[in-house]
Amino acid sequence: MIEVQRHKVYDFGDLLVARSGTRQTATRAGASGRRVEDEIEAVVANLGLPYQVRTRFSGRGSSTAPCDLAIPNGGEAAIAVAAKGFDSTGSKLTDAVREIEEMATVRLPSQYVLAVIDGIGWKSRQSDLRRIYELWRTRQIDGMFTLASLDSFRSHIEEAARIRRLIP
């Protein structure tokens, strides 16, 4: 699905629909990011896993990195997830990519790092999307998902939790 979206041609009308309104745009962007967080939290809660949201996780040495969800918690993260709604523009997208890159840099070999991205904002920032995709392609992160692929995300989380003996 990501590959199809990356090569799809969008026109000005697509951008107008995505950006209609002025004051509502920032609110919608925040709501989109929160929606992605809420969706991944619901998946993890449904699996009965312990987790912590909007925290930092410990990795190599004394290094830490931000994450939107850590299983079981930031200090003992076996799985760290970035949830980035891309209905925002500009520096917000670049910051999101930097956070995921930081997670990839800090992670221990035994930690799973996943990214869940969604939203229309990345259409105008395909270079940022490519940077995240490259982290996944080169196995610096273990998964890249959208809201449309939450079933795959759930399976990935469940498998990682079994490997780390967080669930039987």
- How many distinct helices? 6
Task: Work out the count of structural domains.
Answer: 1
Q: Give the second-level CATH assignment, the architecture.
A: 3-Layer(aba) Sandwich
H and E string: HHHEEEHEHEH
Q: What's the average pLDDT? A: 85
Could you tell me the number of beta strands? 5
Helix content percent band = 40-55%
CATH class value = Alpha Beta
Main-sheet strand order equals 1-2-3-4-5
Which runs of at least 5 residues are low in confidence (pLDDT < 50)?
A: 22-31
List key phrases describing it.
168 residues, Rossmann fold, globular, 5 strands, five-stranded mixed sheet
Summarize the entry for a quick read.
The chain is an alpha/beta fold.
